[in-house]
Write a structure and sequence with these properties.
Elements (H helix, E strand, L loop, with lengths): L10 H13 L3 H19 L1 H14 L3 H4 L1 H15 L2 H21 L3 H7 L5
Helix pairs in contact: 2-5, 2-6, 3-5
Length: 121
């Protein structure tokens, strides 16, 4: 009876390790970069409240602190609901991981890659 022992790790173990490494987030990614994406997306999703608050501030001038409390509160509630939503965090995290993977593959940051795309054919 002959038993072969391979020095190479199995492919499934390598894939699992690679997947874990790709999913690992550094402190700055968890606490700075993903929340930045969350803020940007939350502002897009709360665009109506952002517009209302902006309009109120422009119309009120110096008295905006007093006059725009209702709009400010509505905007704050909308944004906070997204910030506290675990599903929204996961969505933004997956978007970040996708961007990071693309950067590691190409070496081109997302912003520059998007700028290089032709605007018309």
């Amino acid at each position: 009876m002959v038993i072969e022992i391979s020095a190479e790790p199995s492919a499934s173990r390598c894939q699992t390790w690679r997947h874990r490494r790709e999913q690992h987030l550094r402190h700055v990614e968890k606490d700075v970069l993903i929340p930045k994406i969350m803020r940007e997306k939350a502002r897009e999703r709360c665009s109506e409240q952002v517009q209302d608050f902006t309009k109120c501030c422009k119309d009120s001038g110096v008295l905006m602190v007093v006059k725009c409390r209702k709009e400010n509160s509505a905007l704050k509630d909308c944004l906070t609901s997204y910030y506290k939503d675990p599903a929204f965090y996961e969505e933004c995290k997956m978007e970040y991981l996708k961007e990071r993977e693309e950067f590691r593959r190409t070496g081109i940051p997302t912003k520059k890659r998007l700028q290089k795309l032709p605007t018309s054919m």
